[in-house]
Amino acid sequence: MTEIGISRFGAYVPRLRLDRALIAAAHAWMAPGLRGQAKGSRAFTSWDEDAITMGVEATRDALAGADTTSVATLRLASTNLPYADLQNAAIVAHAAGLPAGVATSDHAGSQRAGTSALLQALKGTESSMVIGSDNPFAKPASVQELSFGAGAAAFLISDKDVAARLIGSASLAEVFVDHFRAAGSASDYNWEERWVRDEGYAKIVPAAVKAALADAELGISDIQHFVMPSYLKGAADAVAKKLKFAGTVAPGLEDGIGYAGAAHALLMLAATLETAGPGERIMLVGFGQGADVLIFETTNAITAARPPRGVGGAIADAVPTDSYLRMLSFYNGIDAEWGMRSEKSAKTALTEQYRSAGQLESFAAGRCGSCDTVQFPQLQYCVNCHAPSDGFAQVSLRDETAEVLTSTADWLSYHPSPPLWVGFVRFQSGARVLMEMVDIGKEGIDTGATLRMVFRIKEKDRVRGYNRYFWKATPLAAAQGA
Amino acid sequence: MATGIKDKVAILGMGCSKFGERWDAGSPDLMRESFEEALADAGIERKQIEAAWFGCWGDGVNVGNSSIPAAMALRLEGIPVSRVENMCATGTEALRGAVYAVASGAVDIALAIGSEKLKDTGFGGLPPPFKGTFNDMWMPMGSAPAGFAQLAPYYRAKYGTTKEDLKRAISHVSWKSHQNGVFSPKAHFQKAVSMETIMNAPMISDPLGLFDCSGVSDGSACAIVTTPEIARAMGKKDLVTIKALQLATSSGRETQMNDWDGSYVATTRAAAARAYQEAGITDPRTQVNLSEVHDCFSITELVTMEDLGFSDDGRAVFDILDGRYDRDGAMPCQIDGGLKCFGHPIGASGLRMAYEIYSQLLGRAGERQLPNPSIGVTHNLGGVPYQGIAAISVLGLS
Lengths: 482, 398
Known about the structure:
The complex is a heterodimer of chains A (482) and B (398).
Chain A: E1 5-12, E2 16-19, H1 20-27, E3 41-43, H2 51-63, E4 73-77, H3 88-95, E5 103-107, H4 113-123, E6 128-134, H5 143-147, E7 151-158, E8 164-173, E9 179-180, E10 189-190, H6 193-216, E11 225-227, H7 235-242, E12 248-249, H8 264-275, E13 281-287, E14 290-298, H9 310-316, E15 319-321, H10 324-330, H11 350-355, H12 357-360, E16 364-367, E17 374-375, E18 393-396, E19 402-404, E20 408-410, E21 420-427, E22 432-437, E23 450-461, E24 466-475
Parallel strand pairs in A: 2-15, 4-5, 4-6, 11-12, 11-13
Antiparallel strand pairs in A: 1-7, 2-3, 6-7, 8-14, 9-10, 13-14, 16-17, 16-18, 19-21, 19-23, 20-21, 21-22, 23-24
Chain B: E1 10-16, H1 27-42, E2 51-55, H2 68-74, E3 81-84, H3 90-103, E4 110-116, H4 135-138, H5 144-149, H6 151-159, H7 163-181, H8 195-199, E5 203-205, E6 208-209, E7 219-226, H9 228-233, E8 240-249, H10 253-256, H11 266-279, H12 284-287, E9 290-292, H13 298-307, H14 316-321, H15 338-342, H16 346-361, E10 375-384, E11 387-397
Parallel strand pairs in B: 2-3, 2-4, 9-10
Antiparallel strand pairs in B: 1-7, 4-7, 5-6, 8-11, 10-11
Helix pairs in contact in B: 1-2, 3-16, 7-13
């Protein structure tokens, strides 16, 4: 019998960061008390990032070079999926280059969505991807606005090179309403923190932990890492103390990320796996209308499974920003005057999108069968020798490094994060493409600078609520400030 | 073997409306202005026009699709009217249609009219164009200045031009056009501006400042063409004929391959080579007396001087600073103020350029009249340097 487990994992955190002190300072006139909780920085999504784009980036980090042909299932967990009826997971699967036969599904509706999706995958027998990706929005001047963040983590579950296997688990359903968000609402409604901590975390989690330990035939002293996310400060330490847990309580990733909703448990698990040695046991808790508890044991493959970027790399890959209003604008919190140019229709021709999906989703250039010229987009005939494109071989530019040929900061065009940086990009394969460049700092970007490709929202159709996604170029080295 | 259109078609009459922020006039009013001047100049009646070409770019802020708005505005009854659109090269494209119709022998007298109403958008600058359903999926939506500004780094890298020299040269381009605009009563801007003001203007897209960008204007220009034989039979003595009319459109080479180095406009060079051949011009520097080129941005005019063979590659900066293209220079350029000062109502611009060359060749240019020019070149450029349409005409006395 084969045994599946976590064989690869990866993470993504938006580069944009804001010091919590700047958020608190903006609200000091009406909520001076926030200042006391304003420590470190939080991540926030740029206008063109969401649960889909972050999920794609985390998946690419996890898969980096891996053979994905046997991946049969993809689960995307988030409480902020951009679409209510349009499968978000399918968009991620295509952009990440997973096989066409993959069974995709969205997992939502609870902070526990990430751990539940992971548990389902691990209880199955198939090779699968599990992705948690979230960017919760909280009302301005709320405590949550300070504690929330954004990010994504992705796990490849397979029977090859298993780095961490599930050795026990338990789930518990309980309608404990610590907070809720009605369908269509922008932000949560929260009940008193003391009640949530004492009656919720402190009672529901230990019950599930007890069942999971029994399942694994272990005692709490057999566990080395306790991984429990919470938007409440100190909740994990309090539960660990109640469990008489003597090992390491995983840090909550408050600085540099912030609580990333349904993705947070998976981000914390990824961070723990990045530093764990072989033979260590990790207890992962997901909390929300009950609890999931998963107990893992790492194997000798854990060291080789570490991703190129991971959580640690993503936290370090930061672009510090200095404007609270910019973050608020990216979360649609202010209705700024964008000028008449922003009135241009952003309606997507869905028919055209479907016809051209083959080259747009995976950024597929064509290599001419007659003259070898690599070109994007792929039009009817080769740009060089005019041979019909039927003979083109497909070359994805997604993972190719590239360099800046020209760049211009365009302050005239409407752009939700002005200026629009645009210029020609030259790929290693010789392809030349006019591209948007993102996460450019105040210093701009030089000709010859190395770029990597990121999956982003190309344009938002605010009238119809539809996003058009495409690839953009971003500097390999994070800017010093934006 | 095709023989080209050299001297097969003559201009019977031309007209041009006042350009500018024409709050008083819609596109049909502007068309009427240029049309009536052209009719009077040609000395014909409306009913003698057998076919017409109407050039208009932005239907979103203009008259709507098709040729019907022009046919209704000018009451062109029962004749074929075609609508053409080729971005900023639209005006020359309209002229080309009318000229080809006469040259083919299909009609004796044809009309070309370009008109654009840009100041009904409610904001400054051009409305963002629709790129097409496929391009919308992947192509970034840069503004026109952002597209043309990218010529600067390529040009400097290729010729080792300093940032300061390039800025001074492109500032001189705009300074010269403002000097000329003073003598151009139909121009949008008719005020001289100092080099200091131009060089220190707010940046739009580096290195292009406010004065490096052409005006956004309303206007219309119009040409009535016929055969030289008919023109002479109608009593015209000094005849301006079409020596050449050529277009070149990007096929994607510049944007998709690495053989274009970004320091020039490939379509202009292709169209110029064919236009000079058609016109029998072997040395444009001695055979061309004046030019009206597409100075949508000052940097465009600078590289165009090389693309048209007026300056050696890499030398336009110095030729411009030496005054070669000034009013009193060897090859005056934009004697009417150019797009910069005369204005740039997109669909009309190519015909406005032809109007100025025509006026100069016939000695009707008033205070800005040059001494005895006999050959002039117009250069009209649509799109952006890396993906566009170049349209070139050579007009001369015959």
